[in-house]
Design goal:
Layout: H1 5-17, E1 20-21, H2 22-31, H3 37-40, H4 53-56, H5 58-74, E2 81-86, H6 92-101, H7 105-110, E3 111-116, H8 120-130, E4 138-140, E5 151-156, E6 165-170, E7 173-181, E8 187-194, E9 213-216, H9 218-234, E10 236-245, E11 255-258, E12 261-263, E13 273-275, E14 278-279, H10 280-289, E15 293-299, H11 300-306, H12 309-317, H13 322-336, E16 345-351
Parallel strand pairs: 2-3, 2-5, 3-4, 5-10, 10-14
Antiparallel strand pairs: 1-7, 6-7, 6-9, 7-8, 10-16, 11-12, 11-13, 15-16
Helix pairs in contact: 5-6, 9-10, 12-13
Length: 372
């Protein structure tokens, strides 16, 4: 099989500089300006490589919209404020969110819509999706570009696509996994030197057998730290929904999906979506260290049901035929079912202290994360 253009480039880099980290490999595969996955392919929907919750049902974005309007009210109705989505895909979630939010005209009047997106191709799709809506978006390449002021932000399946580092236990030491070339010139995994003390490994990992894998997301922690610090200082809220676990934990979750099928992460670079499960504990500790209050994580199913997803489905299906009602039931099951997205996907929110939020228990504290 002919190598992809990005595979040729990665192999050339390895021949020049030696094996690269999983972090660098994942970053190139997803965000290379010319051949990166999000720059060149259509990831979303049934005709793409995977389906996200907003693509499953409009109800997902609608209940998130109602949640954010309620949060805005609880925050004292700040005006103006920055309404921002990280990794907005085709703009589907934001379009559904705004359809509900515009029922509160004061919310829309106070909002300044921003989308954090680096792909010019996806920016064009987002512009088309949101054309004619109540708010015209501005685009930002990173969180640092968002204008100052209170922030209401949502990040659905954003943190899972940020590059990770992997460390493998080998003869009693943690060594970073790298991508190099085998004897036949094919991409292959290998191990680098023993990890340094500042490599970002979680504390108190305890004993681990040889072959155990630990993953860390330095970019995810950095993004969360910056957003939590901003929210603690100027107010607002971040709602993040993703698939993941409460760590620290052992396991290799680095995965690739193409055409709704799992594929080898080293095959066809640039043509498959690469992700890793999110360590919600690491994100929570980062937010707490930055001075913010942390709500959750809670399972997506519990969160959406607490926000009224089932009731929303009932209202939508009240005057519809049997086939439409059955489809709505199937959508709800996909979003909240334990064997579907309901348990693996989780929701976490970050705010100033003292804010109560529907769908979440009281904010958590982290003794290991003293406030600055």
């Amino acid at each position: 099989m002919t190598a992809t253009p990005l595979e040729h480039r990665i192999k050339a880099l390895i021949r020049l500089d030696g094996p690269m980290s999983v972090f660098d490999y994942m970053g190139l595969c997803l965000a290379d300006p010319e051949h990166g996955y999000y720059m060149a392919r259509e990831p979303f929907g049934r005709d793409g490589d995977f389906v996200t919750a907003p693509e499953v049902s409009q109800m997902f974005g609608e209940v998130i919209g109602a949640f954010l309007v309620d949060a805005w009210e609880r925050l004292g109705r700040p005006a103006p404020f920055q309404l921002v989505e990280f990794g907005p895909g085709r703009g589907t979630l934001m379009a559904d969110l705004l359809r509900v939010a515009k029922r509160q005209p004061a919310f829309v009047a106070a909002a300044r819509l921003g989308l954090v997106e680096t792909s010019p191709r996806l920016r064009a799709k987002q512009a088309a999706t949101l054309a004619g809506g109540p708010l015209a978006p501005s685009w930002y390449a990173s969180a640092e570009e968002i204008p100052p002021g209170p922030l209401l932000a949502v990040a659905n399946e954003f943190f899972d696509a940020l590059p990770i580092r992997q460390f493998v236990r080998d003869h009693g030491q943690w060594r970073e996994r790298r991508v190099g070339l085998d004897a036949d010139g094919r991409l292959a995994f290998g191990l680098g030197p023993a990890a340094l003390a500042d490599a970002g490994l979680p504390p108190r990992l305890g004993t681990a057998d040889d072959g155990a894998v630990v993953e860390v997301s330095p970019v995810g922690v950095t993004v969360m730290t910056g957003l939590a610090r901003r929210i603690a200082a100027t107010g607002g809220l971040l709602l993040a929904i993703d698939y993941g676990y409460s760590g620290p934990a052992f396991g290799d979750t680095f995965q690739a999906v193409r055409s709704h099928t799992s594929v080898d992460v080293l095959q066809r670079p640039g043509e498959a979506d690469l992700t890793a499960h999110v360590d919600f504990t690491a994100l929570a500790i980062a937010a707490a260290r930055a001075g913010a209050a942390v709500h959750g994580p809670v399972e997506q199913g519990d969160f959406l049901l607490a926000l009224g997803l089932a009731e929303r489905a009932g209202r939508l299906g009240a005057d519809k035929d049997e086939a439409t009602r059955a489809e709505l039931v199937a959508q709800v099951e996909r979003l909240v079912g334990a064997s579907e997205m309901g348990s693996l996907f989780k929701a976490i929110a970050v705010s100033r202290a003292g804010l109560a939020l529907p769908g979440f228990p009281p904010a958590r504290t982290f003794p290991e994360a003293p406030r600055p």
